[in-house]
Amino acid sequence: MNARPRDRPLAFGALAAAGTIWGASFVAGKVALAELSVPHLILYRFVLASIAFLPFVLHARPRLHRREWLIVVLAAVIGVPVQFLMQFEGLARTTASHAALMIGTAPVLVAIAAYLVLRERLRPIAWLALGASTLGVAFTVMQSGGASTAGKAQPTLAGDMLVLASMFAAVVWILVSKQLMARHSPVAVSGLITITGTVALGAWVLARDGLPPTALTTDTWLAVGALGLVATMLSTVLWNWGLAHTDAGKAGAFINLEPVVGAMLGVWLLHESLGPMALFGGVLIVAGALVVSL
């Protein structure tokens, strides 16, 4: 699907906003995890997002064929429980810097998958920009992450591979969702996938971990609300709308805004250190996103 020229600036703006929100969600996640386990936090997050999506889905009433429903189920299961549970299980087994480095591979994986599966073309300079952007993630997270994890958990191959595997799940979610958004409203598609994925996630979490606690502090509820309504519902709508109006390969570059924003807020709010190497990495990431959007 080729975007009309007038759609591209708005599409890139929506993608950039989504990446920024995802980066800001790190702070809310840290607040919520003080009282909640990872499975229960993810469940609360997607239940709230599903409730917010429900009115839009009911209003749109998308008419899907049987094959399209199968696509919804595939994107939902891979994009919600598989991706997020795998990613956070990996985070529990490795350091934050190594996990963020694995997440930084997403744009390259998306671009390669879009080239192989969707036959989308990228100019040579766009490939170089994607490589530079991913390299920038490495510079950023290796310095800020190393400072914040010193003396704590050590990186492991198992943890790194789980996070990397979750990125393959994210690529499948992006490409499969794009097929549906070519024919239906991005908001409706986002809602259907989120609600369906939440059902699968809830079945898994409740069977394994039981009901989540409800006696939580106000700060935790506010963090959970921000994760569910802003970092999941709003950001997913922005991302899928932007994805529907541009190439998937180009959209992947904006994923790299997530670790940049997360690192910046970590310095500002969590008092983490951010040295010259990380600053240089941030420049590479932003420059890569700008080049690939031209």
Could you describe the 3D structure shown?
The chain is an all-alpha fold. 79% of the residues lie in helices and 0% in strands. It contains twelve helices and no strands. It has helices at 8-32, 38-60, 66-91, 96-103, 106-117, 124-149, 157-181, 186-209, 218-244, 248-251, 257-269, 276-293. Helix 2 packs across helix 9, helix 3 (66-91) packs antiparallel against helix 7 (157-181) and helix 3 (66-91) crosses helix 8 (186-209). The radius of gyration is 18 Å and the shape is globular. It starts with 7 loop residues before the first helix and ends with a helix.
Key features?
disordered N terminus; 294 residues; mainly alpha
Order of helices and strands: HHHHHHHHHHHH
Mean pLDDT, all residues = 79
Instruction: Give the amount of beta strand, in percent.
Output: under 5%
Main sheet makeup: none
- Low-confidence runs (pLDDT<50, min 5 residues)? 1-6, 145-152
Total beta strands: 0
Helix content: over 70%
Structural class: mainly alpha
Query: How far is the N terminus from the C terminus?
Result: 17 Å
Shape: globular
Q: How large is the count of helical segments?
A: 12
Rg of Cα set:
18 Å
